[in-house]
Amino acid sequence: MSKRAKMPGPEAGTTVVGSTAVQFRVDYEQAKQLPIGESVDSDVIPAGGHLWRIEFCPRGGSYDDNEYVSIHFSLMSKNRNVKAIYEAFLLDRDGKPSSMLTGRALKSFVNIGPDLIASWGFDIAERNLVETNYVIDGHVTFMCTIMVIHDSLVPVPPSDIGTHLGSLLHHTDGTDVSFIIDGETFHAHRAVLAARSPVFKAELFGSMAEATMSCITLQDITPSTFKVMLRFIYTDDLPLEEELADSPIEMFHNLLAAADRYALDRLKFICAQRLLDEVSVETVATILACAETYNCPSLKNKCIEFFVVEENFKEAMFTEAYGLLVLKFPSLTAELRKRVRT
Q1: Which alpha helices (H) appear in the chain, and where do they start and end?
Q2: According to CATH, what is the number of the domain 15-150?
Q3: Could you report the per-residue pLDDT of 262-272, keeping only the tens digit for each?
Q4: Which of 30, 111, 176, 341 is 20 to 30 A from 160 (CA-CA)?
Q5: Regions in the chain scoring below 50 on pLDDT
Q6: In a 3-state reduction of DSSP, which class is residue 266?
Q7: What is residue 9's three-state secondary structure?
């Protein structure tokens, strides 16, 4: 038994628990001497958490004076509650599965006692046809597949933890800290903030003054940015771009700064991706400065790749943002010029 092969696809509406496919090569010259109903058995095969055996009967059945060869699949495991799809193909002289000499069956084994035979099979082809066209060097070879399935797994709804936690932002029940930004007050829960941000954890539960304060004033963030960041902390999601008060670049620039300040790494990556989507001749210098300031190496590299295309550089260097980039990051702009020349 050898050569693993790809299983056929599952039936619609089923879930595959596990599957296997093997070539079963039989010495036909010896097997054809067996009495009716006796078989040549494969090794034990694991599939879908169960053990199986394939049985080849050279004299499996007789109809209209014709003898048929057959393949059976036997369940060897002690657990006898299983549903499986079985399939078997005869391989021709080129090693390809026959499109005609094939069998397929769906069988459920439910509450089969340990002393009962758990086996199912089918006749493949007339014995004379097999001997004439499919016995090669005294052997016949079958491609056999076993697919263990479930028809009706209990559907699991998507996670709604973000919805439930997000609802806490709409009322003040249970809040134990508030933030004042430009006269606007935001209520929150210390435990939620600390669970999401190591910086908030240090500030609210550590030795800093904020740990004893019920109301904290923030100076380095705008109300709109803090509101979006707070929503992300509670829901792990951001509003749609049309819901953002500022321009996308300005908002994601500010959010990136806040994510860096509070060590919200996932938010930082999301902002970097959103800013990358906004890269153009007019914006690349601003976004590159942002990437350099807040340590976003992937965003920085993508901006540089865009910048050093000669046509882009010739236009971007005349923007006001490029002038600011030269003043703030002279070594970075020197690298850009060098790469454009090379």
Answers
A1: 28-31, 127-133, 161-167, 190-196, 198-205, 223-235, 248-261, 265-277, 284-293, 297-307, 310-316, 320-328, 330-341
A2: 2.60.210.10
A3: 999 999 999 99
A4: 176
A5: 1-9, 12
A6: helix
A7: coil
